[in-house]
Write a structure and sequence with these properties.
single chain; 200 residues; 7 helices
């Protein structure tokens, strides 16, 4: 059974990605040694997927998922899961069901100001929180200071989220230290220019 199928079978909710290809790419990048941080939690599934990818690869590292856990789907229901409302309790249960409760830390907070201590220097970061131009841009400004090897943006070139596209297009145009290395559906991966190679 693939990691994606295992997660889907054992959690309440869904993996908040649009395709198996996106999940495959997320697995590949998060299977690297080092911490992984994601902005946006929902059902906790992408954090679980990252933690399991590390375990499967024998890679050291911890996973942090940042979400204020209010507003949006946390209030109105997840349209991708029959309008059921995610809760912190459900996320914790999902971690326990998949045996990742010690591998993933939930940070119930806004992503700005940055809520993690300076000692957390992630290798990879997934930005999938605020989908406004301003929110996505601010997440980028906070994340790039951490100097991760790879930053993954979700919902890029999705007609539903023009704010994400605008923010990322500006980065690609104006920030020459970062380059696009891979794209899978709406998941775009940027790397520091010296790391500009895809993960096979």
């Amino acid at each position: 059974m693939s990691l994606q199928d295992y997660v889907s079978k054992n959690i309440t909710g869904r993996i908040a990605l649009i395709s198996r290809l996106e999940a495959d790419v997320l697995e590949r990048y998060t299977a690297r040694a080092g911490d992984h941080v994601e902005i946006g939690c929902l059902w906790g599934a992408t954090a679980i997927l990252a933690a399991l990818a590390k375990k499967q690869a024998g890679a050291e590292g911890h996973v942090y998922t940042i979400d204020k856990m209010s507003g949006g789907y946390w209030q109105t229901g997840d349209t991708g899961y029959y309008n059921r409302i995610p809760t912190r309790k459900t996320v914790i249960q999902n971690l326990e069901r998949t045996g990742t409760q010690h591998d993933v830390t939930i940070i119930e907070a806004m992503s700005d100001p940055w809520p993690l201590p300076e000692t957390v220097k992630p290798t990879t970061v997934l930005i999938d929180g605020s989908h406004t131009y301003e929110g996505c841009k601010q997440d980028w400004l906070n994340v790039k200071k951490l100097e991760p090897e790879y930053v993954l943006f979700h919902d890029y070139e999705s007609s539903r989220h023009p704010g994400v596209q605008k923010a990322v297009d500006e980065i690609l145009k104006n920030d020459r230290e970062w380059v696009k290395v891979e794209k899978a559906d709406t998941l775009l991966i940027l790397a520091k220019a010296r790391n500009n190679e895809t993960i096979a």
